[in-house]
Amino acid sequence: MSNQGAETAVRWGPPYLLYLGSATDDLSIKTARGLAHWRPGHCLGQHRRPDCAVTLDLPDLGFAQAKAMGADTMVIGAANAGGVMGPEIVADAVAALDAGLNVVSGLHHKLRDNADIVAAAHRNGRALFDARAPGPNIPVGNGKPRAGRRLLTVGTDCSVGKMYTTLALERSLRARGHAADFRATGQTGILIAGAGIPVDSVVADFISGAAEAISPARADGGWDLIEGQGSLFHPSYAGVSLGLLHGSQPDAIVLCHEPTRQHMRGLPHYPIPELVACMEANLAAARLTNPAVRPVGIALNTSKMPAHEAQATCGRVGALFGLPCQDPVTMGVEAIVDNLVACFPG
């Protein structure tokens, strides 16, 4: 893979050692978990500090041990509030480089901005890659209609399954013989897809242009499946969500939600929005650049619910909207794709 932001000419790639550090909850390791789920053949093991409270059920490996077993790159797969690269992460990144591993990261703090990490990359001839570096020449969005079909996943909150849903839709459409491409907008998706733009690191005026850039006009009848970010109802991240809605010009949207969540992630004083209101707000915003946008399904993250309750909840939510409702991980997305294909034939 390319070496954007690195200090050497070395290329990086799998097999990966997934770094969990001192993570205390599953949401904080969603980058590592996403790679382990969607690219299991690329993931050799995990590295955890003694106080780490989560696991991917992969072999626990030291840096030198992982290198000896064939690992090429350590992926910093754990994140904290603000994406800060603290002293422990810096020390472990240097140790991994000294063991001969390349290092990639999706944190807001950049590997390339830390002198100790850059020095370790230099002395070992290793590569650094910052997945949250958006790159140059992102245009300002223009809102002009463009050829092709696009679907955007939207959410009631952060970390409710937008990336998983988008990847599952891509896999299903391709299995049916349709042209379909996952368009990554976050660090985990970029590491899975090998390309994309991290929209939460794009200057606000250019977010819609970034969405236009990753989903350009296409004439093959296929779908660009654009990974959503944040939520229109999250006071911290609504701006990113709105820019994606405008720049994606989606023909279709899928609303993603976690039924057990009581408040917006990180904001206990903000409740989760009501589902119908959330859907209507996203459709209203999307109509600025595509008046014909329509909802095609609901994706629920039911990982914290027993199976019978998950099925009942999907049935209830689906009936509320008159749309197929599924958990992409445990139930698949075939009913949603059936509806998508029916709504957009040919």
TrEMBL record:
InterPro entries: DgcN-like (IPR011669), DgcN-like_C (IPR035086), DgcN-like_N (IPR035402), P-loop_NTPase (IPR027417). The gene is dgcN. Residues 56-134 form the D-glutamate N-acetyltransferase-like N-terminal domain. It comes from the Bacteria. It comes from Rhodanobacter lycopersici. Residues 140-337 form the D-glutamate N-acetyltransferase-like C-terminal domain. This is N-acetyltransferase DgcN.
